[in-house]
Design brief:
The chain is α+β, with helices and mostly antiparallel strands. It contains four helices and eight strands; from the N terminus they run E-E-H-E-E-E-H-E-H-E-E-H. The longest helix has 15 residues, at 76-90.
């Protein structure tokens, strides 16, 4: 996927694994296992004024989004997630996408629901046996139907 304009001042640009790993390392408040930095993982940076302010990763069928705190609540995560979701279904031929996040991440759950993902299941005590992890997913048929409805 090439660069995509998300807004007049923001782009979604492909990142190599080293750049993705460097960005993830700067986000100490976030669990580092949340975004795989393996070379087989596709990464995109959410870029403003030539500076990476967020990242979207797709590893196999699992999507992850991470934005710096000052970049949140501006609609950028929604735009970025929708762009990568659409690319994964229309260009890569994936049949399903998933995402996992802590049950306490209410904003993350709202983001996934806005992008058409539905809750599939919960893993109790996943994070240090203290916090639950919720899984969300969307399949190709659901995405295609949402595209048809949006076009009407």
């Amino acid at each position: 996927m090439s660069a995509i304009a998300l807004s007049p001042h923001h782009q979604l640009q492909p990142l190599d694994a080293a750049s993705a790993t460097a960005f993830i390392a700067t986000q100490a408040a976030q669990p580092l296992q949340a975004i795989p930095a393996a070379p087989a993982c596709a990464h995109w940076g959410v870029v403003r004024d030539n500076q990476c302010i967020g990242i979207v990763a797709l590893h196999q069928q699992q999507l992850t989004v991470l934005l710096q705190p000052q970049a949140r609540q501006q609609g950028l995560a929604t735009l970025a997630l929708r762009a990568v979701r659409d690319w994964a279904f229309s260009q890569q031929g994936l049949n399903r996408l998933t995402a996992a996040l802590p049950d306490s991440d209410k904003a993350g759950k709202r983001l996934l629901e806005k992008c058409g993902f539905g809750r599939s299941h919960k893993e109790y005590g996943y994070y240090d046996n203290q916090q639950d992890r919720c899984w969300f997913g969307i399949d190709l048929a659901q995405w295609q139907r949402s595209q048809q409805v949006a076009a009407q």
